[in-house]
């Protein structure tokens, strides 16, 4: 029998970076479902993941925007796409210091860029690997934002690779190890950076996706993929290091990915670009990100590319 990963109240408070009293209050209100083991309350990882998805902006509790952002019409709000918790922290700084009302979207890197091209997103986070150049993000941004001036700012860098079960019983060490009869993966949705990384690695390693068992099975977040591996629903998944540590499984680092922000350059965005640059470069913001762990902030705030 496979068992889903679960957390104690203290672990949930650490993951959400709130007090245990806040977690107990959410439990009391019925917003966080729990079960009891003796006198101890525990929460399933899937329930915590669902809660985080439905409350993506922690400060003002503004609603999640749908993946394609087709209903975003209010120009008084700024939309930030992507799933990393650092984007929530960025939104917090922008709301507090500059009174920017923030909407958060779960759209993956590629879908976020398409939304920006269609005028439905203000800040897009991207981590898309190009197998031909070995470069992150810029090859895709250049192709999609044709005709638009933009700036590409570094948010952070992080390790990406493979989630495997504790002890790595199948001894999975590389992308080529996925091409085995007895290995089953759990994939990410189309348009996500993790899905692009997998597809590019399969392509440059000459592995047909039809050979990969579980390729069509998808989850929509790093935490969901890691939880699926932990629960024995798959042998391996693709994602970044942080989720593996949260869930308590092993992680095989295979690449350092650059996680960047894209903002269009126009008259309306001049102040926005300056604000984001100032926040990213501030010691306070960088110290908060560094305290989370597993992030490289050596390039945070630097301009990776800019059109004029």
CATH domain class of the largest domain: Alpha Beta
| Class derived from helix and strand content | alpha/beta
Q: Identify the CATH architecture of the largest domain.
A: 3-Layer(aba) Sandwich
| Overall geometric form | globular
Q: What's the total number of strands?
A: 15
Query: Percent range for helical residues?
Result: 25-40%
List the uncertain runs: 57-74
Largest sheet: 10 strands, mixed
> What is the mean pLDDT?
87
Number of domain modules? 3
Stated plainly, the CATH topology of the largest domain is called D-Maltodextrin-Binding Protein, domain 2
What distance separates the N and C termini?
58 Å
What would you report as the Rg, rounded to the nearest angstrom? 19 Å
Proportion of residues in β-strands:
15-25%
Name given to the CATH homologous superfamily of the largest domain: Periplasmic binding protein-like II
The topology string of helices and strands comes to EHHEEHEEHEHEEEHEEHEHEHEHHE
> How many DSSP helices?
11
